Amino acid sequence: MAWDTDGTRRRLRDAALVEFAARGFDGTTVNAIAARAGVNKERLYSYFGDKKALWDLVLSTELERLAAAVNLAGVGLGDIGEFAGTTYDYHAAHPELSRLLQWEGLQGGPPADAAARTTHYREKVAQFAAAQRDGILDDCIEPAHLVFALIALAAWWQTVPQLAEMITGTGPDDQQERAARRRFIVEAAKRLATARRRPA
């Protein structure tokens, strides 16, 4: 019987996502990933090389999925609001991504796929800078800071869910609260980016 290589690789990636999100790179063992996947750990080394290569692949793949799901269609205020709202939606549906990013920041070292990620975000910064020059967005805020603020506004709810619940009194599984958070994020993003009228 032929070995299901693609299926085995997928099971290992899925298992690694769960383990890395829960324990970080340093706290995760190859044995734990292999056991969760139901695969001999030698397959992991054969397919991915080592644990670090698998970590980089898992995080890069999750960020590619985020980028595919969250599209900055334009730079109008409606576009900015929807970008923030869709970013929130994705992180709410995939809380493991916020955990991976937290672990990446805590453990130090070079980020996974840093060059491609930097290019991706700098393209957004350039879009915002152009919109500021055209008077569409507030030019009193550095465009790079604005991009970061919008992402933080949308993603921080999943990064510290316990803090959000203590402040709001409601957990993230409450659908009314989730909808209210999204409305707030969209409106706050638009207000943050709105061009200010300068005094005459």
TrEMBL record:
It comes from the Bacteria. Coiled coil: none annotated. Gene3D superfamilies: Tetracycline Repressor, domain 2 (1.10.357.10). InterPro entries: Homeodomain-like_sf, HTH-type_TetR-like_transc_reg, HTH_TetR, Sco4008_C, Tet_transcr_reg_TetR-rel_C_sf. Residues 6-66 form the HTH tetR-type domain. GO terms for biological process: regulation of DNA-templated transcription. Keywords: DNA-binding. The keyword Aminoacyl-tRNA synthetase does not apply. Residues 29-48 bind DNA. GO terms for molecular function: DNA binding. PANTHER family: HTH-TYPE TRANSCRIPTIONAL REPRESSOR SCO4008, TRANSCRIPTIONAL REPRESSOR. This is TetR family transcriptional regulator. It comes from Nocardia aurantiaca.
